Amino acid sequence: MSGGEHLQDQVLLDQILTCHRNEPGGLLPVLRDLQDGLGFVPEESYSAIAEALNISVAEVHGVVSFYHDFRTEPAGACVIQVCQAESCQACGSRELTAHAERRLGVALGETRADGAVTLEPVYCLGNCACSPAIAIDQQSHALVDKARFDALTTQWAQESDT
Ligand code: FES
Questions:
Q1: pTM
Q2: Buried-most residue among 83, 92, 143, 145 (CB within 10 A)?
Q3: pLDDT tens string 96-122
Q4: So where does [2Fe-2S] cluster get bound (predicted)?
């Protein structure tokens, strides 16, 4: 990150903290606003957040870790989520996830080295009746088997995939 970006990020963080500093339960709104603004919640922000809200850094860390929606690293250009919740698991989402990892060349929960794609777990997309479900850049797709996954993700497939 360049110095300019860091300064912009600091200004944004200060604005967000000013907005929510005196709000009961302000931690989640701070984290949401920060992720909306930056695309992730940098670990370097934890101490400033903790100080502003008069809580511990461990508490900030705990909440970021608990909620799967928060990222601590920038996402790739495309975010592909594979549902890991109960209904989708019963319909093969684990196999689909393993297929997605091979096909995209990235492990679940990580961003590929070229920054093209992030593969994330998600815990119910509200499409349980049509499991397994995935989302690509927040657009849901239901009844996704391996072939449908391949059709939906052709542009991010790694050439080494078989
Ligand atoms: S469990 Fe996967 S969409 Fe609900």
A1: 0.79
A2: 83
A3: 999 999 999 999 999 999 999 999 999
A4: 83, 88, 124, 128
